[in-house]
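>> Question from a student workshop board

For tomorrow's exercise we were told to take the sequence and the ligand below, predict the bound structure, and bring the output to class. My setup keeps failing. Could a helper post the expected result so I can at least see what it should look like? The ligand is glycyl-adenosine-5'-phosphate.
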Amino acid sequence: MPAKDLDQIVNLCKRRGFVYPSAEIYGGFRSSYDYGPLGALMLRNVKDAWVRAMVQQRDDTVLIDAAILAPPAVWEASGHLANFTDPLVDCTACKQRFREDHLDDPNVCPGCGAKGAFTEARAFNLMFKTYAGPVEGSGAEVYLRPETAQGMFVNFGNVLQTSRKKPPFGIAQVGKSFRNEITPGNFIFRTREFEQMELEFFVPPAEGPQWYEYWCNERLNWYVGLGIPRDMLRLRAHDADELSHYSAGTSDVEFMFPWGWGELEGIAQRTDYDLTQHANHSGEKLDYFDQANNERYVPYVVEPAAGATRTMAAFLLAAYDEDEVGGELRTILRLHPRLAPFKVAVLPLSKKDTLTPLAKQIHRTIADRYMVDYDDTQSIGRRYRRQDEVGTPLCITVDFDSLEDNAVTIRDLDTTEQVRVPIASLMTELYQRLGF
Ligand code: GAP
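>> Workshop helper replied:
Here is what the output should look like for this input. Compare the format with yours to find the bug.
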């Protein structure tokens, strides 16, 4: 039973330290969020799971980490200065601004209900501009990147030279992007500062269509493999009028959010658009010489581009559940163990000094391999509930018998089943149960 209502997740995130409104003590800063102790761990797990699938488990991709600030020349060449715009309308009655393409009725203001009160739409560039160095003004402008992708294109030549890869191969990156969204909203779904996980996969031009199909399937399966039910996901091909300025074809992986289908990731056929643009603007050759066939070509690009923060919201919504244990209602996050902030919690049955040294020693041993919580406050029932609510797959109880039999009790989040395990085989047991 996934969350039906976004507020169930928003409240849980605030209550348990996943996500806070940014600058809350000053009333919040609309459209930005801070990731708390558990959210920071989970967001890192989402990104790690992506890097694991897209880089670690493959032999045809590499990872880079490019700068967030980039000079106008990059955005001139990429087309973002001219084309990365949303159509903006102002309501002359209530003065609110809206994205024209997000209006239910292009004649009716959703703010005040006024009819026919909108100004003509104007193109609003979504990039954040700032200035490098002490002097503001022309010549000092820089832009916060609105996508991580351009870092891969401008480094194509460097990576080709230093990594011994040849097409088909990919350059991956995970990091922050910034867009001055006109209508941010729906919690961390659409924010002005967010994180992306993008792969630019360079292929011989004739292989573009087959790799596009390959990546559409591969990416859909990534979400399923990490626990999102298949029926909450779909692949949707863009209509021609939806395509970005660089795309010859895009499909979105969409998730059934409480308000309807929403994009998690776009898989785009960027063709040779970006490399050609950067080659023309920079004067550098950005192509590949295929020695086997004695031909030089500009690779085509297939780009799976996902949002880490937005995807985290989807994982939380899909994992949310409520059930009854011993006549008591419990909230539970059925997160995939790889995504759960803590894999294990160590819970000494009593705070008494006699149990603490053993419990702390077990904690230290587990911490060497897994992110593990330690909680010795309140009743054991309350502590189980707390771990259930944040998706900790396994709880380990250290009790007075542990001092005699050198064993502990492992409790499983899903089944609430408890088994006694010798401390000597605890790490093997955890490995078997977590799957890693
Ligand atoms: N390089 C291609 C690109 O950036 P995009 O569809 O604009 O494509 C890719 O963005 C993904 O980044 C989206 O599918 C979404 O998950 C995430 N994303 C984009 N804008 C976002 C925003 N304002 N807030 C949160 N995530 C966003």
